[in-house]
Design a protein that fits this description.
CATH architecture of the largest domain: 3-Layer(aba) Sandwich
Strand order of the largest sheet: 3-2-1-4-5-6-7-10-8-9
Number of strands: 10
Shape: globular
CATH superfamily of the largest domain: Tubulin/FtsZ, GTPase domain
Number of helices: 15
Radius of gyration: 21 Å
Order of helices and strands: EHHEHEHHEHEHEHHHEHEHEEHHH
Largest sheet: 10 strands, mixed
CATH topology of the largest domain: Rossmann fold
Length: 436
């Protein structure tokens, strides 16, 4: 992948616009911004630059077809951080229907969410000294999160062709949250594959298991939706919060784009697995590495071994020496656990944020505590297992003609489904041949 934005800016605002769409996208955004706006996380001007404009407002655009979740987010992220014009809400939902969201259904007297969002994004891009891309928070299940996000991703790619798009994509529970979720996921994933540069794929079932993992009791306690979103936000902070390698006098927010450069060596394969392990007290980095890949699938349902094209590990700690001593063994452990492909001579990258002067010396994952964290992001072929589940379930419904009239009613066509099936089959084939 060609890194498409190289800039040197000393005293300006930089890089990313943070776009959160739909109920799930805004709920994750709420946890993300609460984490970053705490005093122990944003310690000074250098830390604020990647996330704020010069006037101190967050570089965030919050979009939903109903106002409730956005207004709640505005209330809970205190301090007047959001720009009012970037809180974009509609008057009615999108019926958990991708087609309704994609075609921006609205009443005759309501300006479209797409038009309003693109106008806000244009203004945010103009506030940047160098616009490098957009980080998108959304889900695959809803009409707004899946449909409108697909349309926005397409529009951003058309309007800002040199900017990069990193999607933080949440998949619904397999047991089912909506009868339309398989269609929505199929179509949205196909659009992301065509228009995004990287897709951080988080499956609700896996997040639920990981968010409850710290509790070692025989009977797992109930894990709240807020705890699941907090875990996702913590993983994102582990990856995207400023690290020493890209921070001079002022952080210019290159982490999202360096992440894509590190873990997407082949543009056609862009689905990313992310997990995190943290520990207080004495750091045992080998143990953290094992915990971080604990839930990483080793083989497919058919017994075919999984592989990774590239892996990124981000270590954050107040202890300057502990990770350096364990560095070699940690990377070796990750390379073996992720089963990196032999054709990539340097498959494992490592970023560190170590020592008392690091922005994260008080952990951004656990504000106020001196903890150690290891966040792992792998371009891993297990993503193909999820894609296969989506394709198979959507195809069964499609062949039966189930619920299709709801999609035809809002402008979807048979060709949209045909191309979506073909696109995901192509991705599955690419990942299936990694080990050859």
């Amino acid at each position: 992948m060609i890194h498409r934005c190289i800039c040197m800016v000393i005293n300006g605002t930089m890089s990313a616009v943070w776009l959160q769409v739909g109920q799930c996208g805004n709920q994750i955004g709420q946890e993300w911004w609460q984490l970053l706006t705490q005093k122990s996380a944003l310690q000074g001007e250098a830390d604020r630059h990647p996330f704020c404009s010069l006037d101190g407002k967050l570089s965030a655009i919050c979009v939903d077809s109903e106002p409730k979740v956005v207004r709640k987010l505005q209330k809970h992220v205190k301090g007047g951080f959001f720009r009012e014009s970037n809180l974009i809400v509609g008057k009615q939902g999108r019926g958990k229907n991708w087609a309704y969201g994609y075609h921006d259904g609205r009443s005759d007297n309501e300006r479209g969410l797409l038009q309003r969002t693109m106008e806000s994004l244009r203004k945010e891009a103009e506030r940047r000294d160098c616009y490098c891309g957009t980080v998108l928070f959304h889900s695959l299940g809803g009409g707004t999160g899946a449909g409108l996000s697909s349309r926005l991703c397409e529009a951003i790619r058309d309007e800002y062709s040199l900017g990069q798009i990193l999607a933080v994509t949440v998949a619904p529970h397999q047991a089912g949250e909506s009868p339309l979720q398989h269609y929505n996921a199929l179509l949205c994933l196909a659009w992301l594959q065509r228009h995004a540069d990287g897709i951080l794929l988080l499956q609700n079932d896996e997040v639920l298991a990981r968010a409850g993992a710290p509790h070692a009791a025989a009977v797992q306690p109930r894990v709240s939706l807020s705890s699941m979103n907090a875990y996702i936000a913590s993983c994102l902070a582990g990856l995207l919060y400023p690290v020493e390698a890209f921070t001079g006098r002022v952080s210019i927010g290159m982490e999202p784009w360096e992440l894509l450069r590190a873990v997407c060596p082949m543009p056609a394969m862009k689905f990313l697995y992310v997990s995190q392990a943290s520990q207080r007290g004495t750091a045992f980095w080998d143990s953290l590495a094992s915990s971080a890949v604990r839930y990483l699938p080793r083989e497919s349902h058919t017994g075919q071994p999984h592989h990774s094209t590239a892996v990124l590990a981000v270590a954050r700690s107040p202890d300057e020496d502990s990770f350096l001593r364990a560095h070699t063994s940690v990377l070796k452990r990750l390379r073996q656990a992720c089963r990196c492909v032999p054709w990539n001579p340097f498959p494992v990258s490592c970023w560190t944020d170590i020592g008392a002067t690091a922005p994260n010396s008080r952990s951004v994952a656990e504000p106020g505590s001196h903890s150690h964290s290891l966040t792992v992001c792998a371009n891993h072929s297990s993503s193909a297992d999820f894609l296969q589940q989506v394709v198979e379930r959507a195809r069964v419904m499609y062949r039966a003609g189930a619920y299709l009239h709801w999609y035809w009613r809002h402008g979807c066509e048979e060709e949209d489904f045909r191309q979506a099936f073909d696109t995901l089959h192509s991705v599955m084939d690419d990942y299936g041949h990694l080990g050859e």
